[in-house]
What does this fold into?
Amino acid sequence: MAPQGADTLPVTSPFTGEVIARVPSATTGDVDAAVDAARHAFDHGDWPRTSLADRMAVLARVSELLGKQTDEIAMVVTSEMGCPITLSRSMQAAGPKVLLDSFLELAPEYPWRSERVAATGRGLVVREPVGVVAAVVPWNAPLLISIMKLAPALLAGCTVVLKPAPETPLDAYLLAGLLEEAGLPDGVVNVVPADREVSEHLVTHSGVDKVAFTGSTAAGRRIASLCGQDLKRVTLELGGKSAAVVLDDADMATAAESLRIGSFRNSGQVCSLKTRIVVPRSRHDEFLEAFTAVVSSMPVGDPMDDATQIGPLVSARQRERVEGYIASGREQGAQITLGGGRPGGFDSGFFVEPTVFTGVTSDMRIAQEEIFGPVVGILAYDDEDEAVAIANDSSYGLNGSVFTADPQRGVAVARRLRTGTVEINGNPVGFHSPIGGFKSSGIGREAGPEGFDSYVELKSIGLPRDLTLTS
It folds into this structure.
């Protein structure tokens, strides 16, 4: 469908600072057309009424096509948001296929319908698609998060309006092409890159039944308030200020090496990163030495270079934000032991050195607010209770880690942390487990069988006790 307006959104290379592409900037009229198409496909089309097996067959073809496009996907995402290419090949390109395959494995076992028999009655409980979904995704892992929303929504029988971030629309167009090639019916998924004002028009649109948002907590609060006015279904996967709790029996070198990825993946631009490292005061210096060696070994450079581990931030605005937090840390008395500035040798690009603060206390802004850049603070504790208290002293509760020589002890500490995910010694939970946040880190869960829950409505049908169901 041709855009209704003439305005475009520039796509800027974070490495060169130059515009590499332009895409149409959706108007409110474009949003209306996209929602109308999704509404018609849901209310009158075949997709919500076809069998789960048929829907799975289409998405299995999408998975196959994703597998054939990994190199192109990696190049596109690195070009538009600066993720180091080696990480793009795994997280940004291979990750969406693995996630989609996970949902395809889980879908047949999900309780789409069940019977409940009691002395008080006999009920058929069915889970039906919630309707038209507005899926609003961020720029840091755009295709992965798009699939995290599209896969369960489409398998449930929903239709979708996908709103990519203005910084990263190119992968959304690539995905739209794959969906079409796989045989997804017209109108089932519609892509509308848009600015904030037009995005709010989508979120508040009367034709949208449910909003699925991933992004900042500030934006999430705004979306929640808008959806609340109409009692619109909403799930929010928001920011984090996650803690890695290093217990006194942990191997410090092993913990430090795990946090190479755990704290600095995607140049610090991942909401689940462990940006507060809580270490025993008695072993603080030992950990700091090991951690400094790890971070010092991470090359900063061209994100298309296989050797690069820290690339540019997504935009000049994001770099200014991160530099503001670094200045705040200095002003509030934390000490920089590594980094703190812009790396030399780059005349262009939105780079910040990987930065390590020590002497951080929980009352500092760098310990409380999400920075979303390669900046980590180290906080010291005297006993396990204090470590847990420091980890929980946050308005966020998205992720966390516990490092210990005794995994059973690690699980016990993990149970005390008020956060949606905890990794013992860096072990991931996998895509069959739900992810999401406590407190200001969000509402609802994504991935795992629980990932289907927010895309369905429960309906109970009272049945005669002697009825034999045929379908």
Notes: The mean pLDDT is 97. The longest helix spans residues 85-106. The two ends are 38 Å apart (CA to CA). The domain at 8-238+441-462 is CATH 3.40.605.10 (Aldehyde Dehydrogenase; Chain A, domain 1).
